[in-house]
Each structure stands twice: as C-alpha cells, then as structure tokens.
Amino acid sequence: MDRAYENTYIGTFIYTLGFVLGTQHTVGNPVPPISLNLFQQTPADKWIGDVFASLGGKNFLIEFKRTEGKLDEKEIKKSHRLAEEIFKSDFSHLKEISFMSHFLACGYLNDQGNAGLFVKPYLGVADLNCQPFDEGTFIRGMLSGVAKIVIGDKTKNMPIGYSGEQFQDYLRLLKRLFDVGSSSSSGGIIMNVSEDGKITYLASDNIFDLTKTLEHYYEKQFQIRPARSHGLSR
C-alpha cells in the first residue's frame, strides 16, 4: 500500500473501538450511553475535530491526520495557539481538561507496509518528552478511563476522558479560537441500548446539549456521576 487516507484511518479506528466495546459487552459488562459523531469535512471540523466520542460519561475530541514521516504543521500551529490561550491565567484550569480529552491521532505506514495509529494529547503534539499512545492502548483507555503514558523518564497511569461544565468551557474556548464568525451546526446523535437489547437513537441540536444529555442518561442508568477532575499534573 502506497498510502492510506485519513477517512480510512478514522473508519478503522471506529470499527476497532466498536469491536473492543462489543467484546466487553459479551462478557457481561453493560453498554453505557454512547455518542460517536464524525465531523470530518463538516463546518464543525475546524473546532471540534474529526470525531467527538462519549463513552460511559467520558468525552473525547480526536483529530486524525495521515503522517508522511512528520507531524502536520497546521496541527502543530493550532496546538501552540491553544497552549498560549490555556496557559493564560484565566484559562489555566482548562489545561487538565485538554490533556485528558483532546487528542491527535496520526496514521502511518511502516517499512513493511503495515498501517497503524499513534495518539498524542493535542497540547503535547510537539512535546518530544510526551510519548504517544498506540491505538490499542488508547482505545482500551477510552473504555476504562485510564491509559499508561510516558512523559520524560516517568510512566504514569493517566486518566483520560472528561465531562461536566468545565468540559463545555473547553468546547467554548475551541469554538472561540477556531470557529470565528461561523454559525456552523454541531448536532449529534446518542445511541442507547436498553437491558432487553433494544437500540434507540436520540438527536441533539448541538454538542453542548449533547454532552449534557449524555451525562443525564449515564447518571440515570448507572446512578453515579461521570468522571470529571482527577487532579492530573504534568
């Protein structure tokens, strides 16, 4: 294979996520309310990214890029601009949220012609001390809420996924920075599986209402609050 396009990597990622989730369900784990929305090549792509995913009360924003031996310069510039805003005193509380919920997934072909993905926190895209997740580690982390990450000479269990009003604060920051002057739609769909296996879909007008509705369904189904702050430090 000479190359694989971004949508090929996205499709494979979504299929793999569904496969792993389905495998867990077959051993008796309940299926939480799920929303997996593809915004690639839509007006909302420029601020939400290619994929918004919410699983078990944890939200993720994922941008996909095909690499040709180096990181995408446009994404590096966006990462730097985002970091400049976040490290201002007024937005410093969003650093944790970004690091736990906003990711860049890079597709590549190795010397043997096999395809793969590596995933980095969006704020750490250009940080050589922040080592990437492989696809399997990241997907299992999305479902469990924790994934091992290497930063410098330290390996730690990193909580991933975020929810609550502060996550919506982060979405508002992204919209302000990267969606200037646009009134683009960012509606999405929630999938819910009942105890008897019935699948239903619920549409939402925008991503802000979507995240609130997901949290409501998650709390109602499992009688617990979704994960929020974990006191992550770098």
Features:
alpha+beta; 234 residues; 7 helices; 26% strand
Task: Give a description of the structure.
The chain is α+β, with helices and mostly antiparallel strands. Helix content is 37%, strand content 26%. It is built from seven helices and ten strands. It has helices at 6-26, 45-48, 73-86, 94-101, 135-144, 165-178, 207-222; strands at 34-38, 51-55, 58-66, 102-109, 115-121, 133-134, 146-151, 154-159, 188-193, 199-204. Strands 1-2-3-4-5-6 form a six-stranded mixed β-sheet, sandwiched between helices. It has a two-stranded antiparallel ribbon with strand order 7-8. A two-stranded antiparallel sheet has the order 9-10. Helix 1 packs across helix 5. The longest helix is centred in the first third of the chain and has 21 residues, at 6-26.
Q: How many runs of DSSP E, i.e. beta strands?
A: 10
The sequence of SSEs as H and E is HEHEEHHEEEHEEHEEH
Could you describe the largest sheet, including whether it forms a barrel? 6 strands, mixed
Round the mean pLDDT to the nearest integer and report it.
Answer: 84
Q: What Rg is obtained from the alpha carbons, in whole angstroms?
A: 17 Å
Count of alpha/pi helices: 7
Task: List the quaternary state of the chains.
Answer: single chain
Strand order of the largest sheet: 1-2-3-4-5-6
Beta-strand percentage range: 25-35%
Structural class per helix/strand content? alpha+beta
The end-to-end distance, rounded to whole angstroms, is 39 Å
Helix content: 25-40%
Q: Give the uncertain stretches in residue-range form.
A: none
Shape descriptor? globular
